C-alpha cells in the first residue's frame, strides 16, 4: 500500500504528479490529449504554491519513490477545500483515492476543521463516485469555477 506523505509545492515530485493530474483533466476537457503547452497553461491557471504552511498542505501517495496520487488541502476560514484529488490511471481502483481522502480528513481533524468541501465535474465520474462512497454530499455551488459543475461537502467529527 502506498505511503502518504507531505510534499512541498514546486518540488520535482510535486510538480510531476500535478502535471499528470492537469494533463488528465485537461485531456478530458478537450476530448484529446492535452499538449505540453496546455498543461503549462493549466498550471499557471491553477497554481498550488499556497498549499503549505498555514494556508494548506499538499499530500502525495508514494510508491517506489514516485507519486501515484495527490490531494491538496486549502485552509479557508474554518473550512478545508480539497483540490487536485488524483490517482494515476494505472493505480485507480486500488483504494489510493480513499486513502488520500482519509489522510486529508486526518489533517483537517488535527486542525479542528469540521467541514471539507470540493468541486469537480460530471465528466470525472470516478471522482464523483469516490466522493459519494466516502460520505461527501452534493451541495450548492460555493464558487464560480467555470470548469466545475458539481460541488460536495462532508462534515467531520472532531474530538
Characteristic terms for this protein:
159 residues, alpha+beta, 7 strands, 30% strand
Summarize the structure.
With 159 residues, the protein is of the alpha+beta class.
What do you see in this structure?
The protein has four helices and seven strands, in the order βααβββαβαββ. The protein has helices at residues 12-30, 36-45, 96-110, 125-133; strands at 3-6, 56-63, 66-76, 79-87, 115-120, 137-139, 150-155. It has a seven-stranded mixed β-sheet, with helices on both faces. A hairpin with a 2-residue loop joins strand 3 (66-76) and strand 4. The protein is globular, with a radius of gyration of 15 Å. The mean pLDDT is 95.
Measured on Cα atoms, how large is the radius of gyration? 15 Å
The helix tally amounts to 4
How far apart lie the N and C ends?
28 Å
| Number of strand segments | 7
Approximately how much beta-strand content do the residues carry? 25-35%
The residue fraction in helices comes out at 25-40%
What form results from the Cα inertia axes? globular
Q: How do the strands line up in the largest sheet?
A: 1-2-3-4-5-7-6
Instruction: Supply the helix-strand structural class.
Output: alpha+beta
Average pLDDT reading: 95
* Major β-sheet profile: 7 strands, mixed
Low-confidence stretches: none
Sequence of secondary-structure elements: EHHEEEHEHEE
Strands, helices and their partners?
Blueprint: E1 3-6, H1 12-30, H2 36-45, E2 56-63, E3 66-76, E4 79-87, H3 96-110, E5 115-120, H4 125-133, E6 137-139, E7 150-155
Parallel strand pairs: 4-5
Antiparallel strand pairs: 1-2, 2-3, 3-4, 5-7, 6-7
Amino acid at each position: 500500500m502506498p505511503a502518504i506523505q507531505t510534499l512541498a509545492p514546486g518540488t520535482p515530485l510535486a510538480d510531476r504528479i500535478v502535471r499528470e493530474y492537469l494533463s488528465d483533466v485537461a485531456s478530458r476537457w478537450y476530448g484529446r490529449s492535452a499538449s505540453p503547452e496546455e498543461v503549462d497553461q493549466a498550471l499557471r491557471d491553477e497554481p498550488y504554491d499556497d498549499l503549505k504552511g498555514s494556508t494548506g498542505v499538499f499530500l502525495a501517495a508514494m510508491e517506489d519513490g514516485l507519486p501515484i496520487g495527490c490531494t491538496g488541502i486549502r485552509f479557508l476560514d474554518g473550512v478545508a477545500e480539497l483540490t487536485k484529488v488524483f490517482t494515476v490511471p494505472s493505480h485507480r481502483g486500488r483504494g489510493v483515492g480513499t486513502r488520500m481522502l482519509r489522510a486529508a480528513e486526518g489533517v483537517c481533524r488535527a486542525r479542528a476543521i469540521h467541514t471539507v468541501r470540493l468541486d469537480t465535474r460530471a465528466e470525472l465520474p470516478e471522482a464523483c463516485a469516490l466522493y459519494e462512497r466516502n460520505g461527501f454530499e452534493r451541495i450548492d455551488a460555493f464558487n464560480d469555477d467555470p470548469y466545475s459543475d458539481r460541488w460536495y461537502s462532508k462534515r467531520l467529527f472532531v474530538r
